[in-house]
Amino acid sequence: MVTSKLQFEKNHLEENPLTSEGLYPDPEKLLENDSIRLDILKKLVGQSIVSVDQFDRELVLETCKFAALLEATEIASCHPLDGKIVITAFFEASTRTRLSFESAVLRLDGKIISIPTGMVTGIAKGESLSDIGEMFNAYGDLVVVRHTETGSVQEIMQNLRLPLINAGNGSGEHPTQALADWFAILKWKPKLKGNTVPPKYQIHLGILGTPGSMRAVNSFLRMSLLFKPGIRKISIVSEMADPLGPELEELLINSGIKYQLTNDINDVLSDLDVIYMNSIAFLGDSYKTLDSRYKLDADSNLKPDAVVLHPLARLDELDPTLDHTHHNLYFTQAHGAVFVRQALMIAILNRFDRLPKNDIPLSN
Ligand code: CP
Q1: For residues 48 and 45, what is the distance between their CA atoms, to the nearest angstrom?
Q2: Which atom of ligand 1 approaches the CA of 334 most closely?
Q3: What is the CATH number of the domain that holds 269?
Q4: 10-20 per-position pLDDT tens digit
Q5: Over 60: is that where the pLDDT of 55 sits?
Q6: What is the DSSP letter of 307?
């Protein structure tokens, strides 16, 4: 029997609540019949998070399940980060990442010292990042760093003895964004967490952007390769002749996942289940738009149940007419980042003992 478009919308909305701001899947679905593996999460204790390459699928899954628990449960009253100071050192502009980290800390009763721009630090007088890293040791318990330069994180870490979270380094990586991306996808389709995923649940993943030049897209692609059982195919739509570069191309080939490169969105759009898009790339020494000719709006030829992800900020590639549709998973993606970052910070700072033991499905 063919389901009418109206019936499809009705069924879909019953399963996936749509608020005026898009699709908000229930985080508890990610926890159904499952406990959270503390032994896996404890691998993060005391660790810096620099690259997606530090994660395997098990660790991504346990982090996302823990984030789902934090989203579904009121735990602020346990004061998990009480007495801890997090330094958010942003040498480059940010709306979401700095504010979501700071919101995450404050909601867990930790404290924040914030550098909203490098020009309020000794950088304005020529101070080196490695000297600033040395200073951080005395001021906090965890440092979150964003910078325009890819090498910035390694430079700060030269003298740093605290854990560091890379919140975006030039055209390098943005690992906690990739966790927020997959947190949204797994809440939307929890079946994708399995070691085996039946073909009818596997997704065709489309990337409208250039992974080799865009840090969020780079980290998203790297993390996506960990979810091979749930991925039927990856299609990359880019205006660049070589959107991957040699390292990412080798990773993609070695993953064994079927993939396609194209510069024509119409080759693939109507078959995509998940569309990840971005147009802002760090090229040379500043941010430029790339792939901005690939635009989506509410009239685009999307599969009825396709979802769109975007790390934001958006330009005109992602039209606001999509905001009020069930294709919009990008606001869930942005809002869920608070819980992913809470999960990471509780794990890195080893504050599991502050969680309410009896109410929480934690296993050792
Ligand atoms: N997604 C993201 O990194 O957004 P901001 O640049 O606003 O932090």
Answers
A1: 9
A2: 1
A3: 3.40.50.1370
A4: 555 566 655 65
A5: yes
A6: E
